Structure formats: structure tokens, C-alpha cells
Amino acid sequence: MPPKFIADRWTAEGEEAVAKHIQATMIPLQHVRTLRRQFEQDRKRIICEPVFKVNDRVELLDYNNSTRVRPARVKKVVGRRICVHVRDDDFDGEVEDDDRQFGDDAEFWVDQSSFYLFHVGWACYNNYGLGSTKEYRRHAQQIADALTKGEDPPYASGDVTPQKIRSWTANKDTPFEWKKGMRFELMDPLAQMFNELRVASVLEVLKVQ
Questions:
Q1: Separation CA 68–CA 204 (nearest Å)
Q2: Which of 7, 36, 82, 137 shows the greatest Cβ crowding within 10 Å of its Cβ?
Q3: Is the pLDDT of residue 62 over 70?
Q4: Quick check: helix, strand or coil at residue 122?
């Protein structure tokens, strides 16, 4: 149904004008493809081919302390959404009462491309805060050392590698490089309606693989 002002104009020109317009413009559109040919394949791939599997290990940004990450395991997978939790066999530090990421009963859901997720060894590779057991830290440091030297890291079974973590690719036509001290406007992640911006500054540029 067209807007009223258009319908009134068509009616004023007579019913034949309306019929001619439909014949000339509307009918040809019924055969026009509105979605790209690969849409159905892409949809199935995105929904049905998750990157992670149950028991995969990642490094998870601490919800209560953003200055550190902790090793965590994938608990459930539903399409692109994964449920992760921090277990006591990887983390032996103090646990706050409102820690929503720790424990067998914890369910922290994120998208598989979430900025909460990092590959195993990321914290040591970037000298970022890491809350974990000594055993995990030794393992992560070995991976970080190998990445620095350009060698094959000694990943354990289930360790998530950099290839599984989403990374941003630079546009070669418009090269851009983040630098320490840059200022920009950032969507406030704590704003419930995601409708507030904050002025932010780049404190450090971390390495990616």
C-alpha cells in the first residue's frame, strides 16, 4: 500500500494511471533478487558452523576486573553464542561473591566474536594481567615465547589459537594505525541502552597474531 499522498495523486489521475504504474514499476520488481546469491549459504555457515566447541579453552576478560584475563572453558555452544566459565583447575585466586564467570554453575554468554575472548597465551604475549594457576601461566608463557620467536606454539588439546579469534583486517585503500595517546569517542559498554558515548584515549596498543 503506497503512502496516502501518493495514492491520492494516482487516484486523481484516474484508475488507468494506477494500473499503468503498477504494470510499469511494480511487476518487474517481483523478479528482482533482493539478497545476494550466497545469502543462504552464509546464513547457514554463521548459524550452524560455530567456531568453538565444548571444553575449548580461551582467555576471558574478567568482568569485575578489566585489567586481567583468566583462562576459561566453553561450557555450551548455541550457534554463534557460547557459554564460558572459569574453573578452579585453571584459576586459584580469590573469588568475589558477585563473580558471574567463576564456578561450575556460572553461565557467562557471549558471541563468538566478543571482545571478552582471547586466544590462549594472549596475556603473556602482551604482558597483560593474567589470573591463573602457576601451571597455566607456565603453559601460556611457553606459547607467548614461541609466538615471539615465530615458532609453532605448544598448544594443548582444546587450546583456542589466534586463528579462531576474530581479528580486524586493515583496509589497504585507507591505511590506519592506532597509536598511543590517540583520542576518540567510545560507546559506553555500561550504558544499558547503548546510547551514550565517552571520550577515550589509547593507553596501549597490544599485539595481535
A1: 14
A2: 82
A3: yes
A4: helix
At 61, which CATH number? 2.30.30.140
Q: Is residue 165 part of a domain?
A: yes
Residues 110 and 154 in one domain: yes
- The answer to whether 74 and 50 are in contact (CB under 8 A) is no
Question: pLDDT tens digits for 157-191?
Answer: 999 999 888 655 555 566 678 889 999 888 776 66
> pTM for this structure?
0.68
Write the DSSP string, 158-199: TBPPGGGS--PPP-TTS-----TT-EEEEE-TT-TTS--EEE
Three-class SS state of 206: coil
Average pLDDT, the chain: 84
Reduced to 3 states, what is the DSSP secondary structure of residue 100?
coil
State which residues form the domain around 106. Answer: 56-173
Residue 107 included in any domain: yes
d(C-alpha 58, C-alpha 143), whole Å: 13
